[in-house]
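Please check the following for our workbook:

***
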Amino acid sequence: MSSIFQKIIDGEIPCYKVAENADFLAFLDVNPLVKGHALVIPKKPIDYIFDIADDELAAMHIFAKQVAIAIKQVVPCKKIGMAVIGLEVPHAHIHLVPMHQVADLNFAGPRAQLTKEDFETTAAAISQLFI
């Protein structure tokens, strides 16, 4: 059974895409901690991030850095935090979260309530700035 992320990659489920290349996809988290919270995933169906080959993992982090730079230009914040948890979806992924304080990276805390328009405008703005 394929994961929800694989279904997003395959186009079976829509997403708010912010960046894509041949190997990776980045899209807004639909249950975000804050506005601009994005996920970076490999297009290969790999569950555990440390099972990714070294060169591919390095490329994934470079891709994530480029996405983070674009997010920071769109969403006012001090920094973009990065987290790898890997328990909620069986597909490797990196969370990129705009932060003003450490508490902004609390996955047990409340989630931002955004409208469809918020997601669409944020995704469009980030994707225009992606290098």
